[in-house]
Amino acid sequence: MERSLQGEPRAYEQLLVLLTVALRAVVNSRARAAGLDAEDVVQEVLLALHLKRGTWKTGTPVAPWVAAIARNKIVDALRRRGQRTEVSIESVVETLCNETADDGRSAQDVEHMLERLNDRQRQVVRAVSIEGYSAQEAAQRLQMSEVAVRVTLHRSLKTLAAIFRTVPSED
Amino acid sequence: MRTDEFIRALAADGARPVVPIERWLTGALLSGIALSTMLFLAALHTRQDIMQAVYAPAFCFKLIVTISLAATAAFLLSDAARPMPRIRWQRALLLAPALLAAGVIFELVTVPAHSWPARLMGHNAAHCLSLIPLLAIAPAACLLAALRRGAPAHPALAGAIAGLVSSAVGATLYALTCPDDSALFVATWYSIAIIAVTAASAYLGSRILRW
Known about the structure:
The complex is a heterodimer. By secondary structure, chain A is mostly helical. Chain A contains 9 helices and no strands. Chain B has one domain. Chains A and B meet through helix 2, helix 3, helix 4, helix 6 and helix 9 of A and helix 1 of B.
């Protein structure tokens, strides 16, 4: 975690992949019963973990911090569906610590949300995610500076988070 | 979008080292204090007898109360900005009210009862009620902006703590110009101003600190 936050993209990507595995377990057990697409919630939690990574205190255990953010976002997602739910933090920590299993699942909502970004933002997000370019390569391909790619990417992610917050997820 | 692709976008955005939330909060607090100090120097002035006042126990006591409130509340900020609900050192907040209560009791014991009302009303309570919130605006704005980068478990509580710090900073500056040193005056009018700012900031927090 510490290395990831120093800006080592490889370490960070590995960490996110590991967290995703754990998050799926938590989210599956709660969201699916409520009729939510679990993978949407997983991606929403990942986005929150990413944007709020500055609130993790260096040297403290990662699990309670991840659990607190996951819990907040799961409760949000369920509430948007008009369901009142209690998710205890202990149960999230427990499931977080227990699970393994993986594959590349996909989510519907994020796809819809990408439509709401502007063209430039969408191009950048697609280039670094689906097409898998580095920021440098994406910059060359889109004829932007690398800094502009990074700024656009960061803005896009913040916009996605704002859309998640305000819009009830579609059926 | 597939989650592994989504992660690639996040990882690409994570290429820069992240700034820890406590550094944002410290920066915000210092800039807020600096801005309010400039406002104070531009629009107000220290009281005429400030050079003698610094030797007066009552004047120093007033500053100790407001500074201890600012300091104890500031210690809670970084916990309030995190997603875990636990906030450590909450009891430290009792220090300033306890000091003030002791000051009030001391004054009631040592000062004859017929002069209590005059001391309580002081010279200009309206100044106190308007200048403390005015001097709290800059720190509150800076702290709320920094807290928006955090992930507070309780947005209203985080807003309240920011308001408490800010109004205590405002009260400390105002104390330098305020001619009333009576603990009765401080306990009444300073408290009203501080509670009002804290409540307003808690409300703002509940609106703008959700994440």
